[in-house]
Every structure is written in C-alpha cells, then in structure tokens.
C-alpha cells in the first residue's frame, strides 16, 4: 500500500515536472542603464599560408581556372595575435574563423573575414570580439567592422583600422597591424 502511494506521488511529481521542459517562456523588461566603456587594443595578426604549420588553409575553391586566391576561395584561419610585428613576438591571442575571396574583379582582391579574436593573456584573457567585415587589398589602411564579443567584450561593437606590416606576394603570408576600438559595458 505504502509503496503504491510512493509510486503514485512519484508519478504525480514527474507529471508535474515534465511540462516545464516544454513550456514557452518569454519576458521583456527595461534593463537598468549601463555605463558604456571604450577599450583600445593594438596587436599584429600573422596569417601564414606557407610552411609545415600554416595558420591559414584553403578549405574550398571553385572549379574554375584562376589563381588560388581568385573569387570564391575559402580559407580557415587560426592566426596568432602578437604584441609586435616580428614572427617571434609574444603571442597574446588568436583569431579563429574564415575568410573568403569575395571580389569578381581579379585586380581588386578582397576578403570578407568572419573571425573571433580571442585573448589568452593579460586583462582580457578569455574574452574575445567578433569581426565581420570586408577587407580589400587597398587602400593601405582599411576599416573593419566589429559586431560583437564575449566576456569583457560582451555586446561589444566597434571598428579596427588595419595595415599590412608584411606581405609576401609569392606565399600570401601576411602580417597585419590592428588598431581596434571597442565600445562595450
Ligand atoms: C571541374 O570542371 C571541369 C570542366 O567543367 C569538369 O570536367 C570536372 O569534372 C570538374 N571537376 C569537379 C571536381 O567537379
Ligand atoms: C588565461 O586564462 C586561462 C583560463 O582561465 C588560464 O589557464 C591561463 O593561465 C591564463 N593565462 C594567463 C597568461 O593569464
Ligand atoms: C595605430 O595607432 C598607432 C598609434 O596611434 C599609429 O602609429 C599607427 O599608424 C596606427 N596603425 C593603423 C593601421 O591605424
Ligand atoms: C617570399 O616567399 C618566398 C618563398 O618562400 C621566398 O623565396 C621569398 O624570399 C619570400 N620573400 C620575402 C620578402 O620574404
């Protein structure tokens, strides 16, 4: 008898619990005002296609004749971010994501970049910002859009001014200087 009661109450408990998992939930409130902050970052990105341990690899290209960077070529990246422009400079993070060659004009190489720039040391260790922007090969200084972030950079938006610090036209290896301005909370 007692067992039945325990079983029955267990069933009622489970039945009472079960619908919670399937419940649609929504709430809209006015959040308290927050103080916006601005952070500036300066570093170098190393996009290395050559050698035994490249940081950028082609993952797809269209079946048409043309160079390996012609329209439609897609690359995956895990590019180190460093303090200085030298390949041996201290690593402070990495940019992981993709870029795709996006211009049909062969004279105007452009890559649209989709990458998460994460920091692995210092104040912003564990935080990252998300960049989503086109990056043309000219002018020398380009502006890229930053559309979000994680950790200290949650809800960030901002922009980056970048310039090639080194480019090997044979290999495609590039070292790029970044001046980033982030608005976040
Ligand atoms: C690439 O295109 C050529 C010419 O259209 C075709 O013969 C070949 O089968 C294609 N290769 C692949 C992998 O689709
Ligand atoms: C960065 O954070 C990770 C994870 O919390 C930690 O293991 C690592 O030691 C930190 N690195 C530095 C340089 O602070
Ligand atoms: C980044 O900022 C530094 C310091 O203001 C400046 O010397 C450098 O030219 C800037 N680089 C870019 C790509 O904006
Ligand atoms: C570019 O890469 C090629 C092939 O590795 C190398 O022979 C050449 O010296 C490099 N040029 C520069 C400026 O680093």
TrEMBL record:
Gene3D superfamilies assigned to the protein according to its UniProt record, in alphabetical order: Allene oxide cyclase-like
The protein's name in its UniProt record: Dirigent protein
Any one GO BP annotation for this protein: phenylpropanoid biosynthetic process
Any matching Pfam family: Dirigent
Primary location group: secreted
Family: Belongs to the plant dirigent protein family.
Secretion signal span: 1-22
Presence of the UniProt keyword Cytoplasm in the record: no
Keyword Lyase: no
Localization in the cell: Secreted, Extracellular space, Apoplast
Job of this protein: Dirigent proteins impart stereoselectivity on the phenoxy radical-coupling reaction, yielding optically active lignans from two molecules of coniferyl alcohol in the biosynthesis of lignans, flavonolignans, and alkaloids and thus plays a central role in plant secondary metabolism.
UniProt keyword annotations, A-Z: Apoplast, Secreted, Signal
Gene Ontology terms: cellular component: apoplast
Subunit architecture: Homodimer.
